[in-house]
Amino acid sequence: MTTLLTEAEAKRIIDKVLSFSKADELSVNMSGGRRGNIRYARNAVSTSGESTNLSLAVTAAFGKKTGTATINEFDDASLEKTVRRAEEVARLAPENPEYMPMLGPQQYLKTNPYAQSTADITPDFRAQATFDSIDPCRKKNLTAAGYMEDATRFNAIGNTKGLSAYNRDTSVEFSVTVRTADGMGSGYATRDVTDVSKLNTKDATEIAMQKAQASSSARALEPGKYTVILEPAALVANVDASLMAAMFRSMDARSADEGRSFLSKKGGGTRLGEKLFDERVTIYSDPTNPEVPGGAFSGDGRPQEKVTWIEKGVVKNMPYSRYWAEKKGVHATPPGGNFIMEGGTQSLADMIKSTEKGILVTRFWYIRPVDPQTLLYTGLTRDGTFYIENGQIKFPVKNFRFNESPVIMLNNLEALGKPVRMGGNLVPPMKIRDFTFTSLSDAV
Amino acid sequence: MGALGMMMPAVPAFARTVAPEALLEPGLDITVKKRLADAALNAAKAKGATYADVRIGRYLNQSVLTRENKVQGIVNSESFGVGVRVIANGCWGFASVGDARDESVVAKAAETAVAIAKANARLLTEPVQLAPQQGFGEVSWKAPIKKNAFEVPVKEKVELLLACNAAAMKNGANFVNNVLLQINEQKYFASTDGTYADQDIHRIGPNFTVTAVDPQNGRFATRDSLSAPMGMGYEYLQVNPSDKVGGVTTRYNMGYDMLEDITAAAKQAKEKLSAKSVEAGKYDLVLDPSHTWLTIHESVGHPLELDRVLGYEANYAGTSFVTLDKWKSKNFNYGSPVVNFFADKTQTGSLGAVGWDDEGVKTKRWDLVKDGILVNYQAIRDQVHIIGEKESQGCCYADNWSSVQFQRMPNVSLAPGKTPLSVQDMIKGVDKGIYIIGDGSFSIDQQRYNFQFGGQLFYEIKNGQIVGMLKDVAYQANTREFWNSCVAVCDESDYRLGGAFSDGKGQPSQSSAVSHGSATARFKGVNVINTARKI
Hints:
heterodimer; A: 2 domains; B: PmbA/TldD fold; eight-stranded mixed beta sheet; 28 strands; metallopeptidase activity (chain B); metalloprotease (chain B); Peptidase_U62_metallo (chain B)
């Protein structure tokens, strides 16, 4: 049996499962697909693999008690057995006072996060994409280490209240780090796409190569407050934590209401409606954006819609769980699947040209929370940090450790460039004044 | 990164949710596993593989998630499948398949692995050099646990967590999140070298965060548990007075008193709200093992991974400042003469303990830094020739049947001091210092030079005495300067393990569980920053 089911194939199985229900409510979640990857280092492939899987989870509810069981076999007898098992587990489970009844039929936006070109990827295709990245490095005596991962998946939900949802999506992530032979220079580039025909690993690698060569023999500057130009990869990461994603994911309404969030108000309540950022800061989610298409529904079946979280610096919306929204008597807006930050029209080169003195940051690394109260984070620059003077890149500089809050950063905004896709989101390069670097690192 | 992932309950890849009783059901019979393994090995050889190994893995997890007086969820999951790794035309290839109980399905995965290896061989620069490994025949290893956590009724666990949460609320907490994670890895390994190793590994991780809120001032403070995730069964939660370490707050060794710790945590979270904000500057640091494990992990464990040194992690976790020339010089001072680090895949109760690693090598203990001098790395079969070793050090691991195995950190620990020294006597000698307990914020650069660490509890030391609690503390240092500033390590009686379930490395990122032991240690003149900000 294939592991990538069509909507009709998934619905047929889900309807069969629902027909066995004896519970107050029953829901079925089916998912499957294929993931493939290729990894290289020292200009050669190090590991490569492929994995397929298909599974079905049944959740039964009696009152506020729920139980879940899962299966990988799809004959009628196995499906019925799974339903009975989920019902048994539910009967024995402790009551969850925050349980919310299952959703009925929903209206979903039409989104298109699937590309056949990505679903058709073969091991030979991955090897060629890797060759295109390694070959130019070998020719210039540079060393490439990189990674490409592709996924083709579907997810389908159905329940006894009439909810029915299906989504299939594809994604490809690519990143490469190029180092000089003497280990004194390092550059990085990353791309993520829905449609692999839009990925050119050679072009991305050439940017990393240029950065590696240009970053060699960096000079030390004193730590302190600097004007910085942060490239999109410094703001959102395909891997690990990042300043913008960390802030986006810290906006939960319940934490703010409970007094344990940067959005909690002194004296109680939240900072909804307050202007917390520079007025050029507008951030929203939109699953229908063709550059960063997302799924039409959240994990619990709620529709993903266009939601503005921050508009002209003002907090406009916060994500709610269904339980907390009901308690507070508000619409249960799910967390966004992607985020899109509005920017300007300037290119990175334009932003450099208009900078008197500053530091260009390719990316940040090992970003971790220091103080959740202020969203203070620490981390380091990596893979290409340069000093700018009078509109020109003058020389590479040694890496810095920073201690900074995205809230402070988005108040110290000087300029926004043209947004680009990063980790499934759209984010502009930013020029920020008074960014706090607290120490130097010898790392290259 | 090794990014240590967020300390959330991890569910293994492709896991399915099951009933609690299913966690006690036996997996496949060993004769069936051997038959499946042979099918994969034979299929790989028939397609031209010069080496193949197969891992048949069953991964069982249970998380009990609570907050205040509520059970948020009880998740029981099982993940079963087969991963096949081969060398063909001198190149590695890997393929895996879920829920594979049929020989033809496993054989097909082996064939896919060979096809992938051959597709990649055209980019080959040097063929894989695999260190020879004797076959051990049919062997087995079981973690020496006293009580399988899955045998304890869920009801009993829920009652324990809710009783602890109630104690926290009674003692001043506004919120408490309390999670108990239990893991059983049932792994069967077979290779063309002739080893068939059946292993049963258990881990347990109790973990809470208590929050105190001061709404008038719009401030909040948290205190996390001082427990360690352990390679133990439910006996870790059965309190034994000899496992407690007294002092400014109680710490724990091989048994954890959650009720006592959460009660203290609630009071301390409240105390933090009004604690003195630290004055930035140079301090002597006295670091408890509940804190030091993370500093060891990041600044010693990761930089001594040979794959990082060689550049295999350059695109993700990074490389290492500990280049081969430093090791070859035989006089690289990693730390002061009191600093001794050892790697150990056999330590009882540790997260990394197993009998055989995931490429069939028998595990052992070896020195990394001796009397302050760098003496060795951590390496696996396709790397050891680079450091002149004849056999692998046995630290190859994959986090799931669906993941390919690679070099992972063994338990790396700071050896206790050789002369008797208590924590009390260590503090007595400090004029201006900070005593740090528990792990907090952590960050280090991609070559492991510059780091910054926070903690859970900070106590100011003045003229040999603890004078009160501090907040907003983080220290920044350079790895080599830091370990060379280590002036004393307490004796063996203070040696304890800390660790993490979720050390991240590799692409796709894999999670590994690892312990780090130490006794309380003192460091001279470390740079401390104040982390308070206004937004």
